[in-house]
Specification:
Blueprint (H helix, E strand, L loop, with lengths): L9 H16 L6 H8 L3 H7 L3 H25 L6 H12 L2 H12 L1 H9 L9 H17 L9 H16 L10 H17 L1
C-alpha cells in the first residue's frame, strides 16, 4: 500500500483480514505480519490503531462478542412462538459460525489474550463461549417466564450444556459439520419441555 493513501474503515479492514487468516491458517498462523499482509497494508498501520498486537486481538474478540449480543437479541425476540428446540438449534448454528469457532481457538491458545479480555470486563470462563452461554440462558429464561419450559428449569446449566455440545459439534474446523445438532438440542431440553406439559 503506497504511503499517504487514506484508508477507510481501517480497523474493520484489519479485523476482516484477521478473520480470513484465522479461517485459513488457524490461531498459530495469526500474526501481526499475516494480518497486515492479508489486509494489503503496511505493518505500521496496525500499530497506529492499536497499542500492540494483543490489543488488536482483544478488540477483535470483543467485536465478535458484540455480534453474539446481537444474535441474542434476535433469539430473545423469538421467545413465545415456534418450537424452542428449533430456535435454539438455529441460534447455535449462527453462534458457532466458522469465524467464531476460530476465535474461540484463539482465545484458548493465547493466555495473555484471555487476561486482557478479563481486564476488559468479560465474564469468567472462556470469553466468547461464556457470552454465548449467557445469550442462550437469557432466551431460556424468557421461555421459562412464558411457561414454555418448566418453571424450575436450571436455565444456566441448560445453557452451558447446549454451548458445550454445540462447541463439540463444531470444534473441528476441518471436519464435515454433523447434521444432528437439532437432536442434541432436543435431548438437552426434553425434560424441561416435557415437565412444562404435565
Amino acid at each position: 500500500m503506497p504511503t499517504g493513501v487514506a484508508l477507510r474503515d481501517v480497523r474493520q479492514q484489519l479485523f476482516e483480514a484477521a478473520e480470513r487468516v484465522l479461517l485459513r491458517d488457524g490461531a498459530n498462523g495469526l500474526t501481526s505480519r499475516a494480518v497486515t499482509d492479508e489486509a494489503g497494508v503496511a505493518k505500521g498501520v496496525l500499530h497506529r490503531h492499536f497499542a500492540d498486537f494483543d490489543d488488536f486481538l482483544a478488540e477483535l474478540v470483543l467485536a465478535r462478542i458484540a455480534r453474539l449480543d446481537a444474535e441474542g437479541a434476535e433469539l430473545r425476540a423469538s421467545a413465545g412462538s415456534g418450537p424452542v428446540a428449533g430456535h435454539l438449534t438455529e441460534a447455535l448454528i449462527r453462534l458457532f459460525d466458522p469465524v467464531t469457532v476460530s476465535v474461540v481457538g484463539l482465545v484458548i491458545f493465547r493466555d495473555g489474550l484471555r487476561a486482557r479480555l478479563r481486564r476488559a470486563g468479560t465474564a469468567p470462563g472462556i470469553p466468547v463461549l461464556t457470552q454465548a452461554a449467557g445469550v442462550v440462558a437469557a432466551y431460556l429464561r424468557d421461555e421459562c417466564e412464558m411457561g414454555r419450559i418448566a418453571a424450575d428449569a436450571d436455565v444456566d446449566a441448560l445453557a452451558l450444556s447446549l454451548i458445550g455440545a454445540a462447541h463439540l459439534v463444531y470444534a473441528d474446523r476441518e471436519a464435515e459439520r454433523p447434521g444432528d445438532l437439532h437432536k442434541v438440542v432436543e435431548a438437552v431440553i426434553a425434560d424441561v419441555v416435557q415437565r412444562r406439559l404435565l
